[in-house]
Design a protein that fits this description.
Elements: E1 4-6, E2 21-41, E3 46-55, E4 59-60, E5 64-76, E6 81-86, E7 92-99, E8 105-119, E9 122-123, H1 152-161, H2 168-182, E10 184-185, H3 194-200, E11 202-203, H4 205-217, E12 223-230, E13 235-239, E14 242-246, E15 251-260, E16 264-268, E17 281-287, E18 298-303, E19 312-332, E20 341-343, E21 346-348, H5 366-371, E22 376-381, E23 399-402, E24 405-408, E25 417-419, E26 425-433, E27 437-462, E28 467-473, E29 477-478, E30 489-494, E31 500-502, E32 505-525, E33 535-539, E34 547-549, E35 551-553, E36 555-561
Parallel strand pairs: 2-20, 9-21, 10-11, 14-34
Antiparallel strand pairs: 1-21, 2-8, 2-19, 3-7, 3-18, 4-5, 5-8, 6-7, 12-15, 12-17, 13-14, 15-16, 18-24, 22-36, 23-24, 25-32, 26-32, 26-33, 27-28, 27-29, 27-30, 27-31, 27-32, 27-36, 32-35, 33-34
Helix pairs in contact: 2-4, 3-4
Length: 563
Amino acid sequence: MKKIICLIIVLILSLSVYAENYLINGGQSSKINYQLLQTLEPAPGIKVLKMSLVVPGSFSSPTYNQQIDNINLDINPQADKRKKTEDKRGNTIIELQWKKPNSIINITMNLTVTNHTRLETIESRASFPLQVKNKDLEDYLVSTEMVQCDNRQIKEKAEYITRETKTEFDAVQQILTWIIDNMRYVTPPVKYDALYSFNSGKGNCQNYSHLAAALMRAVDIPVRIVNGITLKKPFTARMGGGDYTFKMGQGRHSWIEVYFPDLGWVPFDPQQTELFVSNRFIRIEVGVDNQETVNDGLIRWVRSRGGSAKPSFQEIIEADFVSDNIQLACTKQDYGPRKMLLCPEVKASFQEVSVPKPPPPKKIPEKDLKQLQFTRKFVYGNLDFPRNINFAFNTTDPQKESGDQYMMKKNFMVETAEYVTTKLTQYAQVFVLQKPVRMEKAALALHKFGGSGQLWLELRGDNNGKPGPIIATSDFKNLQDVPYKVGYDWIDFDFSGEMLKLQPGEYWISLGFTGSPIVNWFYTYGKPVGPVDGTRYKSVYSDNWSGALAYEFNFKIEGLTVK
């Protein structure tokens, strides 16, 4: 077999390609004191209240290893019944039951997690198509309600994507490349299954996992769904002349594990990483899909006939990093998908596929720009985020099981936000105009927690992929005039007085502040509408926007454009 060190599959279509693959190497090692506090408040009329938990277990793979120690579970008041079982997927489940509960129930799980992510050269000789003869793998090839791998459209797409591949690694990364370039992170989505994601190109972590599993299973690659927790502590990898910072929201997350005959089960996060997950992941439960991996945080109850009682549920996750050693470096490659994909170095036979770089927006002569008539409403940005949501109360709506029995499942809505009004750091977000725009206002998805001072936006030009000189400044907004809300909402900044007629091209909005405001700016995983390096930060004392963020802030640009 020919061995080629690669990051992702590439086909040179032209001399100018647009690629966002990053070869990542090094490692992460952390020891974490983890606490999950769950509060159940029963309502009058509940006759029986049940809750199940899954105890995280240790796990080993070529790239990610998790060791669980010092597990302690405290339940107050004690359950009337308590049962510990292991299901057919190997998950350790604790089932709790209270009869006629009349007080708040607090469940606290404490444990120590020692996580290692090792990103060294991986070699796989697994050929494709696979010849799966292990009966233990058969369940991870089946079609389900969420993973419709027998759907004609999905099967045809998977076969087309992998039509020329000879190794399993090649087939897997072909599929992931297609997903990354054709999916956009949105929460909450309308549905969570693979077919919805395939047809709409939208979804959250469950959708990414289900679609990846469906496409891979459609060509007989075993995939299982993993549910777990991501932690909000950021980490940084060295890249070129600056740093690239990665950060997840703290909460529930879904990813996948792919089976390789010569490697075993290897984790992938279809949203962004191949062959690994970071040590900010805590692995809890596995199954064939997210309909099966529901036991952790599953609430059931029986209520009085004809009643409407339902419990309320709140979940708080705390993680204290006792030690945290990060040694990572990224190197951008000249091939791969349009959106970011991280992968360790791999030795395998593969096909090279990439996409042409899109031409830059065409400038208009200034004299012609002045003569244009701006009459059509223009709205552009990263517009989808959960507005006015309390992220502490994270269950689905009640579902009727039978008779007077109901249940609620955990959801995967997490607060992804950056504290953007520190005294030492300023943040900026790129936006790309494909046509001329008379800009009137910009809005950010913000949540005010307190403090005092002023906020404003700076419109900047582009300076070789970084924020350039200030073109205009918005109105100043006193923090006392920004309303308190439960969650995040649009906060408008007015530019109408500047009479800005903007050429097609790249621009930046940077958030300015004075005083001591405490404000978060919501972000979306990946880069839904902008370039991969289009979210930047710097010290307020520096002119160099050397830091890049692996996500995109939610923003909105409004004004008028031409017909």
